[in-house]
Design goal:
Elements: H1 22-48, H2 56-75, H3 77-87, H4 96-106, H5 109-128, H6 133-156, H7 169-197, H8 203-207, H9 214-232, H10 237-260, H11 271-288, E1 292-299, H12 302-309, H13 311-328, E2 334-337, E3 342-348, H14 352-367, E4 370-374, E5 380-384, E6 388-395, H15 402-418, E7 424-426
Parallel strand pairs: 6-7
Antiparallel strand pairs: 1-3, 1-6, 2-3, 4-5
Helix pairs in contact: 1-6, 1-7, 2-4, 2-5, 3-5, 3-10, 4-5, 4-6, 4-9, 5-6, 6-7, 9-10, 12-13, 13-14
Domain GGDEF: 290-429
GO molecular function: diguanylate cyclase activity
Pfam family, one: GGDEF
Length: 442
């Protein structure tokens, strides 16, 4: 079988790595250097340490995990590529941790590093594309550092020799502590890179949706199960592999759906995805006798940014606006780009007061937003303040259907723009008709 990469070879000197801000570049190269040093120490320990050499059973376990990792990546590569593209400026979660943590329990650290290299090398060629090699190198480095930290926890807890699978309450606690350490180190390293690479990113935005981290937690838990089965009942591992592939699709289906409906410029939901989400949320609210808030916002005089600095600068400002709006809404709210410079926020369960509070926070943040952009004439420019007008409406207070809700919010938005822009207007409920005024149909 010939593996064909998703793009042509890009020389290292042309990697986008070198365009990172200097603090981010130093950070990424520093993490890579530490991972390289850990690799050298791990190889030296295996070769010249207390127990030189690798046992045949460890080679067998390594081969099983390497093959399983590659088959896993190949079977889910379409989902994984779209999910990473949708991750934008938040951590991208995956199930590679499953095979790596299983290896950590079964193999010396040198073979764990080799397993990481195989997994990310295959991903680079087959799944994600060769143009982002520096990102895969950094991700592999975070895996190596996380594995080294977890291995130190295992050794500190008395699990000195492989296999280090839990056999009782104490060893289970040690393995759980090692898994928590692995997750924390990897997550912290990735967050650091995001914050340093994106000067306009907020800490909350960089953390992403913490609920997505259940994927990593599930992977670590499955890694413990794979390690235990490989150590005692290796012939059961293929059955667990099939289970993992099914769980992969079920666990990541919501993220896959979000990826398919993600606007490429802002990372927000697309208008088509949003249009499908609104009626579903209204039906849910009707069943629960709850409310749904809708906030429409239009950027004031955004055309001036495009005309003054160019469309690439406008795209950068629009992306910063999207990140700002997403950082100010609640978990579970849906932010979408529904037009050129028009955004919509769906707020399930929100009252009018809560919708207006969210709108006020967003308005204040956008008014003070500072965005550094590349321009057509000079190297960079700073845009200070990207004000917006807001229209708010709440179901079922002012509308009983999706069309009515959107129309009410749009009319309120139009009123806000006519009132001088950078203003919030809430749609008012229609007054009930008197019985005598109720129209009679023939």
């Amino acid at each position: 079988m010939i593996l064909i990469g998703r793009s042509n070879w890009v020389p290292p000197r042309q990697w986008k790595l070198w365009s990172l801000p200097r603090p981010a570049l130093s950070y990424v190269l520093g993490v890579d250097a530490v991972a390289l040093a850990i690799t050298a120490l791990a190889v030296a320990s295996t070769t010249f340490g207390d127990r030189p050499g690798i046992r045949p059973t460890e080679w067998v376990a390594f081969a099983v995990l390497a093959v399983a990792s590659v088959l896993h990546l190949e079977s889910a590569r379409g989902i994984e590529r779209r999910r990473e593209m949708a991750a934008n400026t938040s951590p991208y979660t995956n199930l590679k941790s499953l095979w790596v943590f299983a290896g950590l329990l079964l193999l010396p650290l040198s073979l764990v590093v080799a397993l990481v290299a195989i997994s990310y090398g295959y991903s680079w060629i087959r799944v994600y594309g060769r143009t982002i090699a520096h990102r895969k190198i950094f991700s592999a480095a975070t895996f190596i550092l996380a594995s080294a930290a977890a291995a130190a926890v295992l050794r500190a807890g008395g699990l000195l020799t492989e296999p280090r699978v839990p056999t009782g309450p104490w060893s289970l606690m040690i393995v759980v502590a090692a898994a928590a350490t692995w997750w924390l180190v990897n997550f912290a390293l990735v967050i650091g890179a995001i914050l340093l690479s994106s000067p306009d990113a907020t800490a909350r935005g960089a953390l992403g949706d913490l609920a997505d981290q259940v994927v990593v937690i599930a992977g670590l838990g499955l890694g413990v199960a794979v390690g235990a089965l490989q150590a005692s009942y290796p012939w059961v591992v293929p059955i667990l592999m099939v289970t993992v592939l099914c769980l992969h699709r079920d666990l990541l289906l919501p993220q896959f759906q979000r990826a398919a409906g993600t606007d490429s410029k802002t990372g927000l939901a697309t208008s088509s995805y949003w249009a499908n989400a609104v009626p579903a949320e209204l039906a849910r609210a009707e069943a629960l006798r709850s409310t749904v808030g809708l906030l429409m916002l239009d950027l004031d005089k955004f055309k001036e940014i495009n005309d003054t600095y160019g469309h690439p600068a406008g795209d950068r400002a629009l992306k910063a606006v999207g990140e700002t709006v997403r950082a100010e809404v609640r978990q579970g709210d849906l932010v979408a780009r529904v037009g050129g410079d028009e955004l919509a926020v769906l707020l399930p369960g929100a009252s009018e007061r809560e919708v207006l509070e969210v709108a006020e926070r967003i308005r204040d943040k956008l008014s003070a937003l500072t965005v550094t952009v590349d321009t057509q004439t000079t190297n960079t420019a700073v845009i200070t303040g990207v004000p917006a007008s807001f229209g708010a409406a709440v179901y079922p207070d002012v509308a009983g259907t999706m069309d009515q809700l959107v129309l009410a919010a749009d009319n309120a938005l139009l009123t806000a723009k006519r009132a001088g822009r950078n203003t919030i207007v809430s749609a008012r409920p229609n007054p009930p008709l008197d019985r005598a005024e109720t129209p009679i149909e023939n």
